[in-house]
Amino acid sequence: MRISPSFLSSDFRKLKEEILSISHAKWLHFDVMDGQFVRNITYDYELVKEVASFSNQFFDVHLMIENPMLFIEDYIKAGADLITFHYEADPSRVTLLIDLIHELDAECGISVKPGTDIEVLGPYLGRLDLILVMSVEPGKGGQSFIMSSIDKIKWLDKMRRINGYKYVIEVDGGINQDTLPLVKAAGADIAVVGSYLFNQKNRNQLIDEMEND
Ligand code: DX5
Ligand code: ZN
User: Fold this and answer.
1) Per-residue model confidence as pLDDT tens digits over 67-103
2) Domains and CATH numbers, the chain
3) Active site residues
């Protein structure tokens, strides 16, 4: 199972060292928060540009922001390989957002919060590269896994088997050695791991173990 490490819980005073400590991960998960869509502020595309100067991992950028339409191009120019926006941030312009991200040659993901019905994504599944199932309330790391996320993963896996959709299923929040097998069995392809990884020292070894489990 692919791991996309989130450095939200890392020590930002030594960011380069922290990100280099997870160099075995092919993906790197950026948690962008604007203090509007979620009650927390992290960083913007300038940080993506800075990290791009020393990492050639696949940049998996999770936009927890209002009005993503305004900022998508900045993140792609800064180095984002995949942009995930939240359905709840702009439900009436989902198709336009997908079009914009693909026109700018990035991959497109869409995310839903725990309280949002996964079936709202039905009309868009045929066009998406990734679906990000939030298994915690977006806004901070270190929260507990919400078990109802499992049913959303199973629904997405069933829909792509029935319809031949190509999207990958990513799950985000509260992933550790206990919840990882649950989401894998439900059909998830990629797991975002933040605090579980950054609370340990042997991070690359953990990444190798979780990717090979
Ligand atoms: C929460 C972020 C998650 C979070 C995951 O809003 O989207 O990526 O950082 O962190 P853990 O793994 O600590 O739940
Ligand atoms: Zn995230």
Assistant:
1) 999 999 999 999 999 999 999 999 999 999 999 999 9
2) 2-212 (3.20.20.70)
3) 31, 172
Cα 173 to averaged position of ligand 1 atoms, centre (Å): 4
With the C-alpha atoms ordered 36, 78, 197, 16, is the resulting torsion angle positive or negative?
Answer: negative
CB 100 within 8 A of CB 69: yes
Cα distance between residue 26 and residue 4, in whole Å: 8
CB 27 within 8 A of CB 80: no
Q: Among the bound ligands, name the one nearest to the CA of residue 198.
A: 1
Phi, psi of 112 (to 5 degrees): -125, 145
Cα angle value 59/35/10 (rounded, 5°):
45
pTM of the full structure: 0.98
* Region 198-212 average pLDDT: 96
Ligand 1: does its nearest atom lie under 6 Å from the Cβ of 60?
no
